[in-house]
Amino acid sequence: MVGILIVSHSKKAAEGIYELTVQMAGEDHRVLAVGGMEDGSIGTDAIRIKEGIEKADDGDGVLLLADLGSGILSSQTAIDLLEEDIKVEIADAPILEGAVSAAVQAAVGGTLEEVREAAELAKQISKLD
Amino acid sequence: MASKIYQCIEKIGNDIIENKEFLTDLDREIGDADHGVNMARGFTEVLAQLPKDEEDMGKVLKKVGMTLLSKVGGASGPLYGTAYMKAAGAVAGKTSITLSDGKEMLEAVIGGVKMRGKAQRGEKTMLDALEPAMDALTKAIDEGKDTEECLEAMCQAAQEGVEFTKTIRATKGRASYLGERSIGHQDPGATSSLITLRAIQAFYLDNLK
Fold this sequence. Notes:
The complex is a heterodimer of chains A (129) and B (209). Chain A is of the alpha/beta class. In chain A, 47% of the residues lie in helices and 15% in strands. In chain A, helix 1 links the parallel strand 1 and strand 2. Chain A contains 5 helices and 4 strands; from the N terminus they run βαβαβαβαα. A 4-stranded parallel beta sheet of chain A has the order 2-1-3-4, with helices on both faces. Chain A is globular, with a radius of gyration of 13 Å. The longest helix of chain A has 15 residues. Chain B is mostly helical and 209 residues long. Chain B has one domain: Serine Threonine Protein Phosphatase 5, Tetratricopeptide repeat. In chain B, helix 2 packs antiparallel against helix 3, helix 5 runs antiparallel to helix 6 and helix 6 packs antiparallel against helix 7. At the A-B interface, helix 2 and helix 3 of A face helix 4 and helix 5 of B.
């Protein structure tokens, strides 16, 4: 199953998005979250993101959803640091809606590409119409 | 006795830590007021973790990069982390360097920052200090200047680059949200790059000359 890695500057935001995502995805999922710095302060840590990618992967690849600014830069750095050959993509999607869509798609057995498309589709869905 | 490369990193780290408030104040004007705090936190950890007696510059610089990646927290973490790791690659296995090795390191650093930040010179970033510094260093080496003159030319150009960042608007990072209002303020990342180059120059003058 494609793994989903949620990356936020905030530990609490990452945990909250994780909680919601897992609720929507159902029991069978490979969702992980990395939030904040090791000491709990606000920030992103490329080394911990790299470890998160390794844990989230079972061979089918990992879709990464990140928040702002260094969320993306640290995630790209983490991908460059990988020693193992893991398929990883960063979704160009809102982190919460993207994670939920991606996890649902992954749970029904989507490929990394399909899971990424599901996440990115979340960007276009209107909440008011 | 601590290795030369340790002492040089110690000088850089101490200068960054000393400028914590200054860098944070600059970042308060156009960013999220964390550059100094983040860089100081990163280098405090670097100084605590770095092996004092390791002579291999590649190993030491890689360790600096990895530590910054995980301890800085903001965008300067992956940017400076990548910069140090690229510098490490340029001097792997070396225990001392020549000016042309230094130039290769700077070239690798610039390549890494451009790749990571998807930025070019003129966008009010670190590159506005580093690229002019590189050009000036190359020119001084080509003209056959001695090390002291080359380092001064490099730092002078970086200084002018920092001044130049006051005149341009930011198009990268959080400062880009300010658009025209970012004009008039010097870039914190270009400033911390200048502090780094000045620290290397000072280390050379005090210890290696």
